[in-house]
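pasting for ref
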Amino acid sequence: MRRWDIDERHTGIADGSAMEPQVQKLLDHMTREGWVAEEPEAHLLPHLRRACGSEWLLTGERLLDDGVYEVTVSLAGDREGIHVHRDAIRLLSAIAEPAFFVRQSEPGVFECVTGVLDGDPPGFKSHGHLVRLIVK
C-alpha cells in the first residue's frame, strides 16, 4: 500500500527511534500527578483568541474533568483537508511551549499536548496543558 499518492518505495528509510527518548520524556512528565496546569481559560484562551484573527471564530470553550481543555472554533474561509489541518496547527502554535505535540484524531478534531519539561527554558517548573481543538 502506498503511503502517499506518488509513493513507489512502500517503505521508509528508518524507524522513529531517534526521537523516542524525547517522546518518552514527554510521556513521563504527562503522567505526573498535578502536571496539567490550572485555569486554561486564563493561561491559554487569551492567546488563542488573539491567534484566531479573521480566519477563525472561537465559539466555545470548557474544561473537562480529565483536564482536557476543549476549544471549539469555526473557520471563516472555505478551506478543507490538509489546509484545515495546517491552519489548526498554526492556531495551536499560539500556545506552544517547549514540548508540543498535535495529532488529528478524527476529522475536525485536533488533540494537543504542550508543556514545559524539567530543564526546559525559560526555567519554569514543569507543567502542561491538554487541548482538544474542535473545528466545526
